[in-house]
User: Which sequence fits this backbone?
């Protein structure tokens, strides 16, 4: 098994996702296996492919290319532990092993304790954040919070985990 740590250049936080299939498509389209909503990423940007115990990345004709470190991907490129795959403004760090427990998709800093009645955390919107969207802290999938009030809770459409709507500034 393997997993990725996904970061967007210039944005706070990260997401981790397990590579659970033989071939997983990364792209901007919602129908991809690993959707990353950013304009620098093609609808179907690249594929992560397992061949036995070895993982490879393939560029799928993306506009901004796919890179492993400083090497541009033409055809297939083998992935090793902690290789950084550059996909538009996203950085995908490849890890061998199991994703043992879900990590926080976005880290919020606050000096007050957890209080279910308190409004959502205040968070400065980064330039590359998807508009009116947050990442689920359980599965890492992004979902729309358009027309929601800060402090409300809503279930993630992907995994059902309740998320508190932050105050985006």
Assistant:
């Amino acid at each position: 098994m393997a997993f990725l740590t996904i970061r967007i250049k210039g944005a706070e936080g990260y997401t981790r996702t397990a590579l659970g299939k033989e071939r997983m498509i990364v792209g901007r389209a919602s129908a991809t296996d690993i959707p990353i909503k950013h304009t620098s990423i093609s609808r179907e940007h690249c594929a992560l492919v397992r061949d036995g115990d070895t993982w490879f990345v393939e560029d799928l004709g993306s506009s901004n290319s796919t890179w492993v470190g400083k090497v541009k991907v033409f055809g297939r490129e083998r992935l090793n532990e902690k290789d950084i795959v550059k996909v538009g403004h996203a950085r995908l760090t490849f890890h061998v092993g199991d994703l043992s427990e879900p990590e926080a998709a976005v880290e919020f800093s606050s000096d007050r304790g957890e209080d279910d009645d308190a409004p959502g955390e205040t968070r400065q919107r980064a330039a590359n954040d998807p508009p009116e969207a947050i990442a689920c802290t359980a599965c890492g999938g992004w979902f729309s919070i358009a027309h929601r009030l800060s402090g409300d809770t809503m279930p993630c459409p992907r995994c059902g985990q309740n998320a508190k709507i932050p105050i985006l500034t």
About this structure: The radius of gyration is 17 Å. Confidence is low (pLDDT under 50) at residues 101-123. The chain has two domains: 2-96, 133-165. The chain is about 0% helix and 40% strand.
